[in-house]
Amino acid sequence: MKETIKLLLSLQDRDLELDRVRAELAAIPAKISGLKADIQSAKKALEDAKKDLTTLQMAKKQKELDLDAQEASVRKHSTELNSVKTNEAYRALMGEIEKAKQEKSILEDQILQNMEQTDQAQRVWKEKETGAKSHESGLLAQISEWEAKQKALEQALTGKVAERDQALAALPKNLAEQYGRLRGGKRTGAAVVPIRNEQCTGCHMKLSQNIINEVRRGQKLMSCENCSRIVYLEEAETPAIKQ
Question: Which residues sit opposite 206 in a β-bridge?
Answer without folding.
Answer: 199
